[in-house]
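G., the chain you wanted modeled:
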Amino acid sequence: LAAAPGSHRREAPGDEIVAARFSDYGPLIELGRADEALELLHECREVAGLGKNYELLGKVLTAIAGLQARLGHGTIAVAMEKDALRYKYRVGEVDAIQVSHANLGGYLRSGENLLNEALAHLLAAALIGAVTGGARAPESLARAAAMLWMAGDDAEVPRDLAELSERVGRTPGV
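Predicted structure as tokens:
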């Protein structure tokens, strides 16, 4: 739209526009328009990446991972959440890091059936939540306990914090 004569045109920076548009992906999914939501998320990813807005990029990648998991694309969900985790560590947003570890634990177990890696990420989420007072710590711990109960002797529980750190540290950027 053209600006009125004598007025100044005001333009928001690209990452502000993307941050505003990003919130539209949820309603699109609710309306059954997953393809449009995914297209929007990929546009947001591109702009956030170009603008080096790593906080937004982490959120967008988590959203893509969740949508891909919902669509039954477990391998893509795992890859996207791993990327999200890398950016979230770069920014240092502890609550977002906890969420991504929890998400990744679920995607690894359901999408890729990697029990021990999934368990490590769920335990990391629970530990981060317990140390920081995160509200999701009990949920992550309960999911890890359920996973252990179902896996039985097949699960390899990390012996200590060093082993837990080593396991989750296999994810680039963690």
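The radius of gyration is 19 Å.

Shout if anything looks off.
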